[in-house]
């Protein structure tokens, strides 16, 4: 084999090895950047989740309070209806009494 062929083969092999090393370094940097961005994204997402949890807790608390107020009304309405019925009967009795005395 001539010297020129040997030099060409060695030069080609060195070029391939250099390219493999550069490609590996670039991919390592790219993966590190992707992981860094992913961590930043995760932190942002966790912050948004916490903020939304707070909003939902406030809304749920408000809704719970409204339901409790409604439940209170639901318990008192039958009592009020009964009292109105009694008052209507008393008014009718009073009207009959007045009619008897006037009539």
What does this molecule look like?
The protein is mainly alpha-helical and 103 residues long. It has one helix spanning 3-102. 97% of the residues lie in helices and 0% in strands.
Query: What is the straight-line distance between the termini?
Result: 145 Å
Largest sheet: none
Secondary structure: helix percent: over 70%
What's the helix-strand series? Answer: H
Radius of gyration: 44 Å
- The helix-and-strand class reads mainly alpha
Shape assignment: rod-shaped
How much of the sequence lies in strands comes to: under 5%
Low-confidence stretches: none
Q: Give the number of helices.
A: 1
Return the average pLDDT rounded to an integer: 89
Q: How many beta-strand runs?
A: 0
Strand-helix topology:
Elements: H1 3-102
Which keywords apply here?
rod-shaped, mainly alpha
Quick structural gist:
97% of the residues lie in helices and 0% in strands.
């Amino acid at each position: 084999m001539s010297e020129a062929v040997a030099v060409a083969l060695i030069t080609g092999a060195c070029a391939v090895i250099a390219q493999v090393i550069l490609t590996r370094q670039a991919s390592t940097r790219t993966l590190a950047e992707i992981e860094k961005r992913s961590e930043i994204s995760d932190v942002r997402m966790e912050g948004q989740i916490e903020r939304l949890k707070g909003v939902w807790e406030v809304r749920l608390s408000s809704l719970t309070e409204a339901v409790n107020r409604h439940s209170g009304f639901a318990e008192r309405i039958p009592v009020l209806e009964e009292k109105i019925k009694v008052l209507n009967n008393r008014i009718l009795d009073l009207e009959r009494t007045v009619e008897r005395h006037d009539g």
